[in-house]
Structures are given as C-alpha cells and as structure tokens.
Amino acid sequence: MGKLTHFEDGKPRMVDVSDKRATVRVARAEAAVKLTPEAAAALKEGGVGKGDPLVVAQLAGIMAAKKTSELIPLCHPLPLSKVAVEVVFDEAAARVRITCEVKTKAETGVEMEALTAASVAALTVYDMLKAASKGLEIEQVRLLYKSGGKSGTWERG
Amino acid sequence: MGKLTHFEDGKPRMVDVSDKRATVRVARAEAAVKLTPEAAAALKEGGVGKGDPLVVAQLAGIMAAKKTSELIPLCHPLPLSKVAVEVVFDEAAARVRITCEVKTKAETGVEMEALTAASVAALTVYDMLKAASKGLEIEQVRLLYKSGGKSGTWERG
Amino acid sequence: MGKLTHFEDGKPRMVDVSDKRATVRVARAEAAVKLTPEAAAALKEGGVGKGDPLVVAQLAGIMAAKKTSELIPLCHPLPLSKVAVEVVFDEAAARVRITCEVKTKAETGVEMEALTAASVAALTVYDMLKAASKGLEIEQVRLLYKSGGKSGTWERG
Amino acid sequence: MGKLTHFEDGKPRMVDVSDKRATVRVARAEAAVKLTPEAAAALKEGGVGKGDPLVVAQLAGIMAAKKTSELIPLCHPLPLSKVAVEVVFDEAAARVRITCEVKTKAETGVEMEALTAASVAALTVYDMLKAASKGLEIEQVRLLYKSGGKSGTWERG
Amino acid sequence: MGKLTHFEDGKPRMVDVSDKRATVRVARAEAAVKLTPEAAAALKEGGVGKGDPLVVAQLAGIMAAKKTSELIPLCHPLPLSKVAVEVVFDEAAARVRITCEVKTKAETGVEMEALTAASVAALTVYDMLKAASKGLEIEQVRLLYKSGGKSGTWERG
Amino acid sequence: MGKLTHFEDGKPRMVDVSDKRATVRVARAEAAVKLTPEAAAALKEGGVGKGDPLVVAQLAGIMAAKKTSELIPLCHPLPLSKVAVEVVFDEAAARVRITCEVKTKAETGVEMEALTAASVAALTVYDMLKAASKGLEIEQVRLLYKSGGKSGTWERG
C-alpha cells in the first residue's frame, strides 16, 4: 500500500503479473470538456444530423483504449473484452461529458484503458471545436469504479 | 469562425491544408494531476533517485506527441521539430504539473500534439501512483499558447 | 514503363525519390460492398439515427489513410494534406459505395493512401454487417484518378 | 440475427464478449487482383528469382492480420495462433489470387483478421504493379470459411 | 530440429501454435554498446542527476518489447506478464551493458521480445551519445536463458 | 561536441531543429548475425527457392526504418525518401551480413533509421533460425557513413 509498485530499486519496470489469476475485471472512468460560449454554440449548431462530432469522439475513445499499452510505458498489453464510450452534450452545464467502460479477463486491471479512452475522447472533442474557440479545458479525468482482482471493488466516494 | 471546420455537409473529414503555407508553428499546453495525501506521500518517498516516476511521465508525453495523428481521427500527420515536456511535483499544492511545448514547420498547427503530450504524461503519472491511491484526478488540460499560421498568436488570458 | 520499379536486381526496396520535386498530388479511389438481402435489411433498419454504421466506416477509412506506409511495405511515409471519405448506401443496387480523396504535397503520389482508405472503410462495413450475413463481398477496389508528379494526370477510362 | 450487434441505442461500441468461452476459431478469406495485360507482363518478367513481388505481398498480409484491431474500430484485440497467406499468379485468368487462414483461441472470431490480411496483400500487389499499370482492380474480397464459437461453422456456398 | 519452422513449402507463415499449451515462459537477453572515449566521457559527465540517459534507454527497451510482433514479421502477438530492462554503465570496460527479462503465459516463447528490448535499448543509448561520437558499436545481442514450453530450459553455455 | 544534446538541465527532450535547413541526408549502417554450424546448415538447406528467409529479414528492415521514431524516444518523425536493405549469407564467415541505406530531405539526419533497419533485419534473421539454434549472436551494429547537415560527411575509419 502506498508504494510505487512500478519501481524496483528505484528503476521502472513492467510489474510481474504471472502469478496472478486471470479474472474478469471492469473499470469505468469519466472526463469532461468545459466549453466556452462560442464552442457551445458551434456544437449546438453543427452537431445535428449524421456524422455528429460526438460520434467521432466516441470512436476515438474506443480505438484509444486499444492503444493504452503503447502509450503508457509500464502498462501490460491486454486483450479487451468490451469497450463502451458515451459522449453527451450537457448544454445546461456547458460541458461535454464522457463516460467509458472497459472489461477484460486478465491478470491485471483496465483502469488505465478506461482513463485513456476518456482522455482521447475529450481531446477529440477539443480538436473538433478548436476552430470555434481555443479556450476549452479538459477536466475531471478520473476513475469512477473498478472491480476484479485481489484488490477487489473500488468506487469513487 | 465558430464553425465546425472538420465537417462538410455534416460529414467528418481531414481538412484540406494544401493551399496553406508551411510556416513555423508553436503550441504550449498544460495539465495537472490532483494528488490525494497517500499519492503525494508515495511520490515524495519514492521519487528520489534515478528512474524517478516524473521522468517516465515526461518520456511518455514526448512519445505521445508523435502519436497524435494516430489517436485524434481528423488530425494531420505532421513532422515535429521539437517536443519538450516538463513534469514537476508541486508539493504545496498537492499536484503534479505538466507543461509541454511542440514546434513544427508545417501547413497546420500543433495544438493537439501539445495537448496530447500533456494528457498522456498525466495519465502516466496516474498509472504510477494508482497503487497508492485510485482517487487521483487529471484537470486543467488546456492550451496555453499558440503561434504561427493565418490565425496568428493566441495566448490564454 | 512496365517495370517493377520497387525491385532492383530482383530485391525489393523503397524507391529513392530524393531527386523528385515536392508537388501537390491528388488521388481518388473507390470500393463497393455487395450486400446480401439480410445485410441490406439490417443496414436499412439500423442505420438511421446518430452513430450510423456508415460514419464508423468513414472514420476508419480516414484513419487508415494515415497508416498506409505501415501496411504497404515499400510505401513512403508521407504528410497528408487532405483525406475525405464518402460512404453511401445504394439501396437500389444493394451496395455500399465508398469514394476517397487524398491530397499531399510530396515527392511521390498518394494512390496507395486512397486505395487503403477505401479498402479499410469497406472492411469496416463488412465488420458491422457480418452478424446479419457473412456472405458480403468487397469488389471494385480501384483507382479513379490521380494528378501531380512527372507521370501527370490519369483517369479511369 | 440480422441485427447490427456493434450498436446499442444507435451508438457504436466494442461488443462485450466476456461471457463467451475461449475456443479455437478459424477463418479463411480470399481476394483477387485483376491484372491488365501490362501488369501481367511486368509480373511475369519481374517475378522470377528471389524477392519475388508475391512474397512481399504475402508478408504484408501476415503483418496486416496483426494490425486488424487497430484498423477496424470495433474489432477486439486478439492473440493470433496462426496466420498463413498464399499469393499465386493465375496467368490464365490474368489474376493474382490471395488466400488467407487465421486461427486463434479466443472469445470471438477472426473473420476480420483473415479479410484484412487478404485486402492488404492485394493492396501490396497493386502497389508493386502500379508503375506498369494503374488500371488494376481488387475484387472478390470475401470470407470462405469460419469455424468455432456459438454460431458454429459457416462455408461459402 | 534444424529446420526453418517459419517456412512451409518454401513460403513464410506464422506457425500454428493452437495445439500448444499456454504455460509460463521466461526469456533473458543481453546487449552491449561499445563506447569510444568521447562517448564514455560524455556519459560520465552528463549521466548524473535525474533524467539519466540510461533511464531513457531502459524505458525504450520496455516499450519495444511490446512492439515485437509489429517488428518481426512472423512473431505471434502475445500478452506479456513482465518486462524488466537493466542498463548499466560499465566504465572499466567502456561499455553500456543491457539485460532484459520478459515473461508470458502463452503458447509460444518470448525470446524475440527479450532480444528486441535489448536491441532497442542499445539503439537508444547510441542515439543519446551520437552527438559525442558516431563510432559506437552495438554487440553481443544474444539470448542468455529461456524456460517453458516443450523445448524446455536453455541457457547460454 | 561531446555533449548530451538530447538533455537540457538534466532532462531529456526532443531537440529543436526548426532553425536547421532541410537538406538531403544519407546514412548507411550494417549489422551481422554470427551463425552456429546448425543455423548455417539450416539456412543453406532452407534458403533456396522463393520466400527465402533473407527476403523476410530485408522487408522487416525496410519496414522498421519507418518505425524508428516510434521506437527511439527522442527521435524526430521524418519523411524518408529511400530505404534499401541488403541481407547476404556469407557462408565462409558463418555470418549473415546486413547493410542498409536510408535517405531523407529533412532538418536532421537518418543515422538512427539506418541502424534500426539493420537491427530489426538482424533480429528477424535470428527469429527465423532460432528453431535450429538459440546460440546466434548479433554483432557489429554500427554506422558506416553519413552525409548532409551541418556536421557534414562522416565515414567509419
């Protein structure tokens, strides 16, 4: 507890999980993009019809989950059994809200996969709205829930 | 202005930049990881010596900048002429602060590259501290500055 | 003319283009997915509303254009200045029709990028319809047009 | 049956396969490249000896099978236990014929891996012959056979 | 024994391992970078403090292990359960010495993953020292040990 | 001279090359695989006919050159204008010898691309011969020549 498990004698490594059991593991994460009035207006106006910007962000998030172990140096490459990403325009709060769920049956969890999916979906929202306004901000990228493995279930309080 | 330039007739595409001039373009972005007391303690204790977790995050950020066009569906693949990432433990504020600068000589800017580098560096900090505490949060992923191209210089107010 | 330019003394290599001039080059390609009645019905029924399967295929095509030089062994890695992919359900002909346009300013052309985008968009259509019917077929993956470079403009007769 | 299983409430996602059993699954697919007389002549003349263009296409197909889940947005990343690709010049029919077989032991099938391998092998044949003739056409990219999993064995009629 | 198992009828393929059992497999490999006096001096002088060049090489090695099946055409994509890379400056011998250990639970071994990690760590050392001296040389890239699978344990004599 | 140019204040970064001129740059590198008698015999016996193991290694080298900036953390992503890899069985010396040439027109050189191509071609030779003998060794991975850029021409003495 409280230890930097990715380090051994002060050197980074990919932790040995070969003694762990492959069990079903789930992680959920979220992120939000805080919009400026210009960006909110552009999204409202342009976001109807097919090819909606939020669908682009959703797909980017799904595909990013599969790239997690390429991006995060000490992450294990894992088979993923489910990736779902929701991207919703919360007009009242002037935010785009992203929620991701990732599942695997593996020796280690998928928290980073869920967080990576949420981050990349949020970056994609930024990319599509940056011509309207550069002042957007990504916030609240955080874990909501995880289950499976020895450390059991965790839920944001 | 205010338009979703990535869309044409409601359909996403990678915008045509072949008429633009290749000029030097710079972008700076930041991100922060809000630490819990357990995570701050683990970082303080484990972060001395070589192989420091912040160096892992820094390298992850640099390498992620090069993967931006693979992650963000409508981003142009660009040559990058500089990527610098700084990762600093702000103990007083209980935060890890990340700043990135990316440069190119190209037809389009590198805002997304700087933001992607900041996001992935922040995710890597999360990954290395998650054994200490799962309640960390990534916030303030945002552009600080951009210059070059027709739209000129922009700076966060 | 008529030679295998990728080969020298019977050995494959990536052709030297350092003497060529960087000029604007365009390529257009198409592909079609021949549907079974079950697949056409599933597409008709499920393809309304946001998140339309054809948008998924369109984005997959755009992203694949950027991966061309990773997939085709002797292709040069190129900056791309435009990628547009259109995916249309031609109900009368029981086909999904895909058209792609790719642009660059480079020493060599983007025919392979346009063809790769068309192929991967078609494969993605297949993937989304395969639960309805496995008997789909991808056909007519072919170049429609290219311009730029020493060999000039070519158009399918 | 006949449903778009990749969609839930009109939104794309990577289907949950965590309840399925990991069983041996096989898929076979094919593709053909229709040659022009110039391309057929170039292949005949240049294709003797080591480094044969067909070997380049074969390797490209094998390597592409491993990239399937990066290319097709909603595909699961899978371990592959076999990939074999055959590329044959059918001079009489003026075609290059490609056949692929992919095997895995996993919760979902490898149809897309076999089809992706066939497509990329065909694109590589195109790339190597395009200096001789741009009028080539890829056709008959289709599944031949699949076995394993709940839906059992399927064979093209 | 003594056969080219990657070839069948003279054609390369990814060998079928679906009949093999998934067992724990370990491989260890090493590499060395022979330094010139200028490079040794630059490393000695610049290698103190955080961000040490050897840490960059170590991380590059870890991340490269995960890319093995993308680099080596006939390698199977495998889940990895451990990757550890050590990079040490042997001043007396004027060498940087690299040792890697990779573990998996799979149907085939991880020799190539360990060798790839060692090679890329060595290339990264070269990259960081090449401004000081271009005359460096990578040598002794070789397997030290492997265990698991039908062929059992092997150790360099 | 003699400085670690990839580091600034003890921290790694991707060096700023935006002030440099894009000029034609060439690099040549080599590598050798030292064979055991068993491996030499397997290669002699199996290496005739199409699909020769040396062609697989050659293609792996060409494709790896394009992946250099993904593998070496501080390398700039560059367009490549030529990649040629030669792989020769030197039976008398019981070695497979690899030579690579890479060209670009860019702000920085392609030494790492040539060395990466040579290393991965050598690793691929190892992979194909490892069933015959695990005692192979990769050696003499080194730069032979570079030209272009401010530091001018360098040749191994």
From TrEMBL, chains A, B, C, D, E, F:
It catalyses: (8S)-3',8-cyclo-7,8-dihydroguanosine 5'-triphosphate = cyclic pyranopterin phosphate + diphosphate. It is an enzyme of class 4 (lyase). Substrate binds at L74, C75, H76, M112, E113. Residues 14-149 form the Molybdopterin cofactor biosynthesis C (MoaC) domain. One of its GO terms (biological process) is Mo-molybdopterin cofactor biosynthetic process. One of its GO terms (molecular function) is cyclic pyranopterin monophosphate synthase activity. Belongs to the MoaC family. This is Cyclic pyranopterin monophosphate synthase.
